[in-house]
């Protein structure tokens, strides 16, 4: 059984915020659309129950985010408890602790790590993330160890005007991704959280990066229908995904994802407020109540950006 919303979009993927703290302070951080200090957290057993229950309604793809998920002392146990059957577990991380935890995470069943590395330049990296310059090298070490441990690596880069949206910066990122066997994901800046404060100054449309890719000889491969209708290119031995999320109805039309805050609230979209509190049914191990609440929120889902109310 798979749940469909009123627009025919299936619910297939869940982004899970596992904590509300981070040791980086990126200039655009949206913190997954939730406050930085919230209520009590779910534990590893809770997440295991959640994954087991949602798999019954066709959700097999879970992304662990934060905050910085690797700052949780039990993050390896969370991955281990959630990983079962056909379930896929990925994680978005700043990579700071990846070198020390990658082998344990791989053993626990982590399939992929999306590492935030927005520019292949230590000085620019330091300014974007508000971290010491030397942390850039530490992130690279983490990527290398994770790759050797068998974890698929995808480098996340938020597109920022005047910082990394030029052809030279893109070539450097592609070269870096190629050297570590990673794919690359170019993400438009979102006017959420800290991103709202710098949006007018630093927003650069994804079309600019597509133009650079084509100038580099990139070959269009396909469109990811299962995830926001993302266009995918291939250049220099690297797969490059374009995440054009802002004011893009085609992106919303292909959305198969919802979000869970670190205190168990279900959000139908980054731009929406929580629509259900799943904390109690998860803690009570009430699968029926959990599925009922999830089904209710799926029914309420609507695209944030629409072509028209009659065409989606």
Automatic annotation (TrEMBL):
Q: Name one GO molecular function term.
A: cyclic pyranopterin monophosphate synthase activity
Q: In which pathway does it act?
A: Cofactor biosynthesis; molybdopterin biosynthesis
User: Which CDD domains does this one have?
Assistant: Radical_SAM
Q: Which Gene3D superfamilies match?
A: Aldolase class I
| Positions bound to [4Fe-4S] cluster 2 | 252, 255, 269
State the encoding gene: moaA
Q: What is the protein's species of origin?
A: Thermoproteus tenax (strain ATCC 35583 / DSM 2078 / JCM 9277 / NBRC 100435 / Kra 1)
Cofactor info, note text: Binds 2 [4Fe-4S] clusters. Binds 1 [4Fe-4S] cluster coordinated with 3 cysteines and an exchangeable S-adenosyl-L-methionine and 1 [4Fe-4S] cluster coordinated with 3 cysteines and the GTP-derived substrate.
InterPro entries recorded:
Aldolase_TIM, Elp3/MiaA/NifB-like_rSAM, MoaA-like, MoaA_arc, MoaA_NifB_PqqE_Fe-S-bd_CS, MoaA_twitch, MoCo_biosynth_MoaA/MoaC, rSAM
Do the record's keywords include Amino-acid biosynthesis? no
The protein's name is: Probable GTP 3',8-cyclase
């Amino acid at each position: 059984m798979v749940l469909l919303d009123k627009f025919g979009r299936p619910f297939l993927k869940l982004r899970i915020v596992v904590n509300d703290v981070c040791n980086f302070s990126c200039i655009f951080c949206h913190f997954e659309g939730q406050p930085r200090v919230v209520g009590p957290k779910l534990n590893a057993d809770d997440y295991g129950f959640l994954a087991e229950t949602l798999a019954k309604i066709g959700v097999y793809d879970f992304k662990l985010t934060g905050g910085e998920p690797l700052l949780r002392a039990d993050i390896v146990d969370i991955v281990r408890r959630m990983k079962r059957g056909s379930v896929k577990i990925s994680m978005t991380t700043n990579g700071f602790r990846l070198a020390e935890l990658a082998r344990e995470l791989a053993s626990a069943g982590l399939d992929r790590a999306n590492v935030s590395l927005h520019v292949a330049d230590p000085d620019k990296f330091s300014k974007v993330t508000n971290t010491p310059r030397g942390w850039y090298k530490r992130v690279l070490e983490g990527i290398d160890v994770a790759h050797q441990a068998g974890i698929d690596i995808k480098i996340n880069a938020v597109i920022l005007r005047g910082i990394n949206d030029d052809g030279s910066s893109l070539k450097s990122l592609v070269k870096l991704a190629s050297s570590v066997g990673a794919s690359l994901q170019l993400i438009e800046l979102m006017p959420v959280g800290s991103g709202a404060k710098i949006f007018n100054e630093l927003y650069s449309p994804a079309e600019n990066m597509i133009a650079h890719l084509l100038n580099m000889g990139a070959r269009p491969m396909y469109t990811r229908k299962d995830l926001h209708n993302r266009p995918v290119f291939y250049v220099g031995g690297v797969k490059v995904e374009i995440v054009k999320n802002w004011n893009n109805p085609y992106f919303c039309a292909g959305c198969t994802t919802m979000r869970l805050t670190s205190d168990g609230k279900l959000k139908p979209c980054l731009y929406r407020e929580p629509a259900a509190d799943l904390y109690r049914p998860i803690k009570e191990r009430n699968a029926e109540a959990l599925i009922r609440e999830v089904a209710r929120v799926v029914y309420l889902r609507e695209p944030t950006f629409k072509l028209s109310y009659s065409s989606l």
